[in-house]
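Protocol step 4 of 5: obtain the predicted structure for the target chain.
Materials: sequence only (see below). No template structures provided, no constraints applied. The aim of this step is simply to have a reference model before the mutagenesis design in step 5. Sequence pasted as it appears in the construct record:
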Amino acid sequence: MHGADLLITEFISSEGLIRDASKSIQKMTFEESEHPLGIQIFGHDEESLRKATEIAASRNPDFIDLNYGCPVRKVVSKGGGAAMLKDIPKMIRFTTAVIKATALPVTVKTRLGWDDQSKNIVEVAERLQDIGVSAISIHGRTRAQLYGGNADWSLIYEVKNNTRMHIPVFGNGDISSAVIAREMKERYGVDGLMIGRAAVGNPWIFMEIKTYLNDGILIPPPTLAERIDMLRLHLKKSIAYKGERCSVLELRKFYSGYFRGIPDSKKFRTILITTESAEEIENVLQEIIQTDAPPAPSAF
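Step 4 output (structure tokens):
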């Protein structure tokens, strides 16, 4: 709808999948129009990952993506996500098990390393390629950095320009605009760009980037009316997917993105994050529209 060439689901716990947890199963729901799409899984147990791969593959995605990059404490503390960067042989063993469990392509999302003393992504990428990984996406930070500081793309460049590498290499980190996306693509020569946080509340970023990459044109940002229409659609689809209460709460993290750059929007965002129902949200959106509307022409 907004120009993304490839989609990946929210990451899904392998333990949740094999236990048939409703939230985990729900995350594998997608529409045919969303292809090509990969289901992303993570876990800390080899057998659980293998079984989860079989379950995910049965939903007919185009590929399986392994998350070895999530830095969140509750994931890492159990040995999942970026924790794999502390034990590369284990990462390779787990990845091999997943590749053997499916005929689908398997891709990996990871980081530069665990910390500044272990930025081993060049070696890791080679080893993942050698066991059959079909593509790799690299976030330009270590786990220790979390999301702080600036992403370092120099090692992503080394991976891409390693003469032994032949699989696609995608770069990720700090791509927040079409101008930055083009700069990263041209400077580091990656095969593609992965967008994460910058798309939260801003689904238009994909078309903005593609238009600038392909045509050199910076398209104008969406109007306030377009943003509100998209927010309404977002809420409607989310309610159909996971119910009103959860959707209303979850939408709170998207408001800053939807209204970024809109003058005097802070007061409305402050109200929106306190709403408790879809009806309340709609009332606030109506107020925003009326406030933005031009004054009626005078009769005199």
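Step 4 remarks: The longest helix spans residues 224-242. Residues 224 and 292 are 8 Å apart (CA to CA).
Proceed to step 5.
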